[in-house]
Each structure stands twice: as C-alpha cells, then as structure tokens.
Amino acid sequence: MTFRKKRLPMGCGTSNSQGGIIGMHAYSILDVREVKNVGMDFFRDKLAQGTLGNVSGFTELDGTVRLLRIRNPHGKSEWKGDFSDKSPIWQKLMENRSNGGADSSGVFDLTAPKSPELKRTMKDDGVFWIDYDSFLMGFHNVDVVLAFEGNHAKSFGSNFAAKSSTHRCTRAFELSVVPRQPGEDSTNDKVEVYVMGIQKTRRGATHGRSDRKKSYKASDLGILVGECNNAEGPVQLDSVDGYFFGLTRNGHIRLVLDRSQNKRLIVMPLSFGHPAATDEERSFVVRFCADSPLLVSELAEPPKMNMAIQKYIFGDKIHSFGHFGTSFHRGSQGKNTVLMEAKNDYSFLFKVVQVECMSGGGGTVLLYLLVNDELYSQMSVKQDISFSVEINCRGMVTRTATGLQQHETVSKGEKFKAAWRRFSLSFTSETRSRLLAAVVQGGQDFQLGSIKVEPISKNADSLGPMNKFISLDQVDTSSKSDKYTRYDEFGVFSSVATNSTLIAKMNKTRGFVMEDQELALALQKSKQDFDSKTPIDLCDDDHNDDKSSLDAAIMASIMEQEKTHTSRKKKDTYDEELEKAIALSLQNK
C-alpha cells in the first residue's frame, strides 16, 4: 500500500504453477486495494476451516479484505480461485459490506464488472484480482522499482581501495534535507532515501563495450552510515550503523531523514577484499534515490574509519536506518560474541569480540580488540596483551593491518566446492582498542567454521587472575608505546581510544554472549549471595592479602558445608549409640 501510494512500479514472480498461475513466470502488479467495513459473515467459511490469516497473519477482526490486481504479460491465463473475474465471492463480499458511516460517495457496487473501485474485464486477457493470502501462497517474490516521481536520483563514481591499502573506504558522502519545494506534499516530514552500491559486469561486452571485455569478479561491499548532529563544521559521528552485502553486484540500504531534525547522514562504502579483472581505477557506482529533493555532496576525505568501526560495533544504532521496503528480508547483522576476556571483580581489562555480519549473504566477520583504557592506565606495571587467533573457513579471505593473510589448506573440498582454509594469526604487545582482522567472502561458495582465541603467556609464573591472558614485564607504563597509533599507515586497523561510556556499557554484560544473559544473571546473584554471608577466616596471618574475596567466599561455603556434614554425621552416630543403650537397659529390666 505504501508503494502504491508513491506510485512505484511493482512486479512479482512465481515458483510453481497452481490455480491458473504459471510457474517460473514474471507478472506485474497493477493495483493494491483494501475493502473495509466487511461483515463477519463473509469470513465464516474460512473461520470454520481454520485457514483465515494463517498465511498473512490478518484476521477478521479488522473487517478488511486485501486484494491485488495482477497482469500476466502474455495477455492470457489467469488466476481461477477466489476473486477471479467470475468468482461468486464478489456477490458475497457486497452482501457483507456496509458503508460504516461513510457517505454514499464511498460505496460502490462491487458486483458490477466495471466498478470504478474494483474493475473486472470478464475475459481471459491476463488481468485478474487475487486476495492477499492466496497471493502469498501463489507468488514467490515482489520487486519494486524505486522510480520516485520527480526522479530525485544521482549517481557518484567511487573506487575500491588498492589491494594492499589499509584505508578501505576511499570516498564518503554527506546527505542533508533541503527546504520544502513548491508543490511538494506539506504533510510529509520524512525523506526516504535508498543508497545503492553498483559494481560492473560483462553486460554490454557483446555490443562493443570495450570496458566490459574482462570477466568481472565483484568485491565484497558494505555501507556504513554515520549520524552527525552538528549541522556545520568537521564531521563528528555520534552513532554508526551499516550493512555488508558480500559479493553481490548491487546492494542497497534504506535511510529516512527527518526535516524537523537538524542532522546529517554520512555514507561510507567500504570493502575488505578486492575486485578481480576490473579496470585500473577499481571503479564502482554509488547511487542515491529519494522520494523528495535531497542534498548529496562528496566529502573532501572520509571520516576516520577506525572510529567509525568502533561505533558501528559497540555504539547505539541509528533509528532512521533499516531494511523496510527492500525486496527481500536481509536479516540482522552486528551480533557480538566475546571470544576471550580478562577481567577482575569490577571491570574488564580487554575483550576479543567477534562481530557476525553473515546474515542475508553479508559474508563478513570482524574481530575487534576492546581495551579498558582507564583500567590499563592505572596499572603500575606494563602489561602486554598477547594472544593467538585460529580461523577455519571455506572460500573466505582474511585481512589485518599487514594486508591479506596467507593460509594453509586443511582439506580439499568436493567438486565445485571450496577447500577448508586455516588462518593462524598472532597478536602481541597490544595496548589499545582496534580492529584486528576482517574475514570476508572470497568466492561464491563460502562458509565460516570456527574462530578460536588462545592466550600467549610469556611468563607463566606471574601472579594474579589475568596471568594466563597477559604478559607481565616490570616496566613503567609511561614508557609503553602504541605501535598502531598512526592512522595514515594503518587506516581502519589503527588504534582508537575507548571512552568511559562504552566501558560502562560493556561492563553490564560482564563479557557474556547475548544468549547467556540468564547464566550471567544467575552467576551474579550467586556472587551476591556469597558476599552477603558472614566471612569466615580461612587464612593464616601470613597469607597473601590479594586473595580474591569471591574465592574466599566459595572456599568458606565449601568448608562450612563439610563442617555441617561432619557435625551431622557425629550426631547421627551419637543417636544410634544412645538408642542401643536404651534398648539394652530395657532388656536388662
């Protein structure tokens, strides 16, 4: 109904043949209608059969019949079920429809073949009406042409980064609303925008296109969108959202700008792989299409992508970003899983986080190191955060700050299937938060296996609960240098400061995966129960003072249980002996 209101061309396709509908065939959607104020008696048969709304989800409670007018481009062969040209259900619909208080101009004779509301041709010309539930069962997909009235569209040339470059975003664009134009709908305060990334193909090579002679292989493509509250001046991203499309030739996202809010949106296309057999400039097109006039301009240089990636992974999402209106359900991306964590009783020192962007054919997984700068700076000794990463996958490549990584072939795949690869990475002397690696789709057949993170401990004799995660050297922290601080050299993989707000947000999860929230709450409650008990002195005077309070509480509980068990055992033995003595005395009497 939204697309119809905006007069956007729509089409649909089938998978199987049924009820007069031809399988594996394309149709056009001519009209979409809702017939309201329909009485309950109209739905009686389907209610008795239990089939009403079990496909679309709509029930009789709203008293609405939803219809679509479809056309077979062959000009013949029509739907033969309910609401076809000669279906008796039209008469039943009219008998159960009331004006509901509306004026007479809103009521039409739905049984008439040439009704101005629901016109029927009454001949086999390929044009027919079909109800929404039957439409969902008979048709496989819906396509919408984003050709808004007024043709508010603009294309910009862009380029993929060089194969060895760490700056994976070469161009960025700024979107902002413009004052309402003459003749524009005054009630519409929203501007709907679709952003598309379009890559080259060989199409046109047979017709003399010299630039299409090569067999093009698409690159992985993602689009990040940042929200900027300041209307003027340098770009300061407050929140970042986005979507990764994998090796799709074209992918698009939907944005909504509010005229009442003075915000700018920054569009940042990025890629972690590289295209094959393309032109020297590695070019692709970024296209903007809106339902109202829009101001789009290219920035002099992209924002700092290391900060954008951190905000995308851990920051708040953009409410104006979504996939409503796309031609297929993409699914959600950006799920975080903590692979390894070092923490104390109150906060964490660091987390290694896996960011899942595989749904909807995204084909991208990010590995991020999040360091608690505040806790790290307060430590009296220098602590090198060191660990190794093992990635098992098929048909995927891995990029780090040093470029594309080499892999070993674990096992060869079956015919026409990619072989299993293993990437072995090592990260030593890390000190600040940064993107560690990006694992992206490298071919049409791909699959992510397991990602394992193991600590690298240089000093196994080091004391403290974090010794298995970090290496300790007795050196002043002031002399510690960050080797990834240079953005010009390391680009999106360079380090970035972690603010206190993000630390507080991450401390709430205590390092657990989202699915394990119940376990996290249970363990937290268990810790509170231990802490609330009266402490028991288990240690000698010369015991180390740095013993964890939680460990002490657990040991206290164990020993207390053993003491209670021993006491009960002694009492049971005493009772048995007492009973024997009483029985013996009775026998003597």
UniProtKB/TrEMBL annotation:
GO terms for molecular function: calcium-dependent cysteine-type endopeptidase activity. InterPro entries: Calpain_cysteine_protease, Papain-like_cys_pep_sf, Peptidase_C2_calpain_cat, UIM_dom. Keywords: Hydrolase, Protease, Thiol protease. The active site is at N72. SUPFAM superfamilies: Cysteine proteinases (SSF54001). GO terms for biological process: proteolysis. It comes from the Eukaryota. Residues 20-144 form the Calpain catalytic domain. Its EC number is 3.4.22.-. Belongs to the peptidase C2 family. This is Calpain. It comes from Skeletonema marinoi.
